[in-house]
Amino acid sequence: MPDKATTGFMRSLCMGQIEQEVLFPFPVISPDQKEMLHDITGALEDLLGSHTEDFRQWDVDGDMPAEFIDQLKEFGLFSLIIPEAHGGMGLGNMAYSRTLQEVGRYDASVAVTIGAHSSIGMRGLLLFGTDEQKDRYLPKLASGELIAAFCLTEPGAGSDAAAIKTTAVRQGDHWILNGNKLWITNGGFAGFFTVFARTGTEGKHGKMTAFIVTRDMAGVSIGPHEEKMGLRASSTTTVQFDDVHIPTENVLAEPGMGFKVAMQILNSGRTGLGGGSVGGMKHLIELSTRQANERKTFGQPISSYGLVKEKIGRMVVDCYTSEAVVTMVGGLIDGGYKEYAVEAAISKVYATECLSRSADEALQIAGGNGFMREYPYERIVRDSRINRIFEGTNEILRLFIALTAINDVASQLKDLSAFMKGILNDPIKGFGVLSDYALKHAQLKTGFGGSAELHNLHEAIKPQADLFEDQTRYLAQAADRILRKHGKNIIGKQFATKRLADIMIDLFVMACTLSRVQASIDALGVEKASREIEILRVFTSDARVRIKRNFHQIDNNEDDLLKALAEDACEVERFRWDTI
Ligand SMILES: Cc1cc2nc3c(=O)[nH]c(=O)nc-3n(C[C@H](O)[C@H](O)[C@H](O)COP(=O)(O)OP(=O)(O)OC[C@H]3O[C@@H](n4cnc5c(N)ncnc54)[C@H](O)[C@@H]3O)c2cc1C
Q1: Tell me, what's the pLDDT at 345?
Q2: Which residues make Cβ contacts (< 8 Å) with residue 579, sequence separation at least 6?
Q3: What does the pLDDT average to over 423-441?
């Protein structure tokens, strides 16, 4: 697939340009992959449908039996994105994300076990591996003989990934690896580790390099299973490396490129987490609607009450719009676009927050039963909570989303360009994808003309398209205004940055939903697509209020007061005003 030249839909949008060709028509899964997905979905029902009670028990036990993991291997669930030539199923990103969606309907621990293997554990090998490395490892990864894990986090380095202390020192034809990794998913049974270590002394922390490490190498040891709030059946452990001798041919990409490797893995793996979140939401809608129809109060099923309908209606809107965004990002990757990091970050933030909200509301609809371990709701709330933390916390991703836009706008404002390097080197260096993507952006020649308007959308969704166009114009102005107001201090202005990110999130979700609904109108006609048009109307109407508030608060806010309260509380480390 040739690379497609685009500056990135959102980054262009922040400069007032709508690259409509990037998002329209709404991406569709190819017919052969669709057929494969039908087979997979049916077979997953057979494989996972019978384990409902087991999933509950394994959550209590905090364990997933080895025999069950063998069943996942036999099914081929570790081979999803591995090319057929290496024994895999060769699914594209859209089909992969859809498969995780199906798995996520049954159990989040299973989805994370498979997702950590494919989305992050072995993705570096797929993206950066040499032919020799791929030939050596991919067949074993496809069969599940080797399960993969991604080893970046350390006790002192989570969001600030560049602060890792694990080191690798070159000695002849080997690198000697030493260090400790924390909270590694699949650590308990993984045989293949993508490990990031500091090599060399350049820069503040020294450059980072990515290595393929296998469990049979002397000096690799695994800690005990962590007791967790959720995803209790999935394996999370420490992984320790003591004088591990890694042959030089196990370097992924080039020495010193590790940070870029880590960021690209995380960017391209985000459709997995998004897919799992959509699957979770679909399951919650099934549970909640059944519960709302069955449960009667005051002689009526609770589904007849407005306050319950409001919750279920919003769950539907959240699920539809999340699926639009996650599918779109998968489509961008499958379509050969290279600039999708901001869109992928938005899909992760949006889908994981929609899932959290849906899980909370589903539990509320179930009332007291929702709080009981006998029912699935509390487990789903516990399981879904981590999604806003791992693979980039939603706070760090919001900074990334907005600062990328600000950087692009700044690149256009020549008088401000001098301090941009300062911005790029600073606080979100851990997820400092900025430096990789943003600087070069302004110079990119895009294949698309871009325009400030959306063309050829159906009359039935014109009001929503108009709103999107209007808000886009304000977005570019707001990014410009924030930058001019705060100058190089923008890095410390996280309240403003977050508002810009939230506006960008709403606008991207709106654009993806417009695209999805337009595709349904094209395929089914307006009448049959009327429910979907209603979803678009609800989302757009809510988003309009949020966007307006965020724009307003960029200049009119009590940020300084709130900050002062936080600083005061952090100083005394307690609540000052007790009543006794
Ligand atoms: C169940 C589980 C599985 C995991 N699996 C893996 C895995 O397989 N591989 C792996 O490498 N890691 C894994 N992790 C680690 C995970 O990626 C990290 O927990 C995550 O990156 C956040 O890092 P942290 O926990 O150190 O939080 P911190 O970085 O300490 O952040 C704490 C809080 O501060 C906020 N914050 C931090 N910096 C800033 C800033 N500059 N501005 C504003 N807010 C900020 C964060 O958003 C967060 O709310 C896993 C974690 C868990 C719990």
Answers
A1: 97
A2: none
A3: 39
